[in-house]
Model the fold of this input.
Amino acid sequence: MHMINIGITGSNGLIGYHLRVFLENKKEVSVHLADRETFSSSESLEDFTCDLDVVVHLADKNVGADKDLREINMNISKALTDAFEKSENKIHLIFASSTHTIINPKAAYSVSKVECSDYLNNWCNNHDCHFTNLVIPHVFGEFGKPFYNSVVSSFCYQLANNEATKIIDDKELELLHAFDVAKGIFEIIQKKDFGQQRLSGSSVSVVNLREKLAHLSELYSQNIVPALETQLDCQLFNTYRSYLPKDYYPREYKLNIDDRGMLFESIKAEQSGLTFASTTKPGVTRGNHYHVDKFERFIVLDGEATIRFRRLYNSNVESFTVSGEKPSYVDIPTFTTHNITNTGSTNLLTLFWSNVFYDEQNPDTYFEEV
Done:
């Protein structure tokens, strides 16, 4: 099996993050990353480009004065081609362009994208390399920067933190999740699709987007899992959950107690799902994996446990202490490795709920130590 060496510029950005996660589980791929520090010297950039087969060029500046924005983005592109010339690789260069070049062609960012694309295309033609100009629609996803990456990020952040949302300009958006962008990029690499390529998303107005996200947020605040009827609904819901404050979990249940015992509503969902349970012996840990689509809930019914989260490519571990004496739930964020450890002296009884049935052909479960 031939190993494909893929370089990613702008690896810390929204698309870069999700592309890293997607490629993480491709055995035939070796991933090489470039961030701002990489571009700080020609030597580090040359080290990055050495032996690469494909470069996905995501690094750019999209906010700032018009002249600065165009100059900075062109300088980034020229620094990259200078490094290519030193490495002498016959690479496949994939440049991330945007539908903004079509929707608002006179904007400085659009002009910058066209200028960089033309420059890189000409350079590839003159150096026996392959070039793909990839036109990408409005991208959203978990961990995007509010008020920078996407109106989805801004709305989700505001709703998750009980802030007012505001619509400045209602227009039609073409939404595409960053992980789907990653899938599209990898397909282009595999098929060797050169020239102009375009990824397609789902159409929704800004007004309807806000209404949809507000509805998801309102239901979830009432401990109701909303109906996630489409992939877009699921992706928007998971994106919203990624902005919840760190102290949001664990969520305590309303307990109905009388002389017979105790009763609480463990989950209310507008859709079908999978309920399952496990026992865990003292000192034993379950989990150490993450999901990219699946939504899971953990509920300790008997015993004591610690649930731990760690966002991928982040060293910070969040811990939640839970007990059957005080029932509460913790919902697992996507792109977050997690585990549960029995910290008590008796067997731990845990109830789980997932929004999808387990599929052996597509388990959406990837091993990663917390």
